[in-house]
């Protein structure tokens, strides 16, 4: 595919991702389109950031998103601080979802690595890791509930067995008005 077609595809995907309701798949397609443009131009980039590298797939995805976005912004003569902010946003958008044990572990790995190489600020990283901690706690709770037998599950106030009604109780509820 020619560079012009690749650029047109990338711009089309930027429009989709920039609108509300953009999915993770749309963002991934945009990142892949940026990669194709950079490859077509013969640019080399890697997942090495500030001398750090990783072979963890989730970290590679986040680092690749950062690099592709950052280098594309720099190529478009975006000032370096703005290009870095765009790269940081790309890193955050590439974070794995906080779903399931593996997703949570991958999320924590990406946030931790991002903090270590100063892509994610300590303040934002703390909030993200707290969200991961809540998700992990919720996941453990769900896993424990799933392994319990039905008779062992704790009953809450809204799912208790109804109390037995005495046989001589009236069938209708009546109200007594008390006058003072």
Description:
It is built from 6 helices and no strands. Residues about 45-50 have low confidence and may be disordered. It has about 180 residues and is mostly helical. The N and C termini lie far apart (about 90 Å). It is about 60% helix and about 0% strand.
Outline of the structure:
With 180 residues, the protein is mostly helical.
- Distance between the first and last residues' Cα: 89 Å
Count the DSSP helices: 6
Number of DSSP strands?
0
**Strand percent estimate:** under 5%
Q: How much helical structure, as a percent, in the residues?
A: 55-70%
Low-confidence stretches: 44-52
The outline comes out as elongated
- The SSE order reads HHHHHH
Rg (C-alpha, Å): 26 Å
Question: Which features characterize this protein?
Answer:
180 residues, mainly alpha, 6 helices, elongated
Secondary-structure map with pairings?
Blueprint: H1 3-17, H2 24-40, H3 57-75, H4 80-93, H5 100-116, H6 122-147
């Amino acid at each position: 595919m020619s560079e012009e077609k690749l650029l047109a595809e990338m711009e089309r995907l930027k429009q989709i991702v920039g609108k509300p309701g953009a999915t993770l798949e749309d963002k991934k397609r945009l990142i892949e389109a940026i990669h194709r443009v950079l490859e077509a131009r013969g640019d080399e980039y890697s997942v090495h950031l500030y001398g750090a590298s990783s072979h963890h797939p989730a970290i590679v995805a986040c680092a690749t998103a950062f690099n592709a976005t950052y280098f594309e912004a720099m190529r478009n003569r975006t000032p370096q601080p703005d290009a870095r902010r765009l790269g940081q946003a790309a890193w955050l958008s590439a974070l794995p979802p906080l779903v399931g044990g593996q997703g949570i572990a991958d999320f924590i790995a990406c946030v931790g690595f991002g903090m270590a190489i100063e892509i994610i600020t300590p303040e934002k990283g703390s909030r993200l890791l707290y969200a991961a901690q809540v998700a992990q706690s919720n996941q453990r709770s769900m896993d424990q509930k799933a392994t319990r037998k039905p008779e062992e599950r704790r009953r809450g106030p809204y799912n208790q067995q109804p109390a037995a009604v005495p046989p001589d109780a009236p069938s209708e509820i009546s109200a007594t008005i008390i006058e003072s």
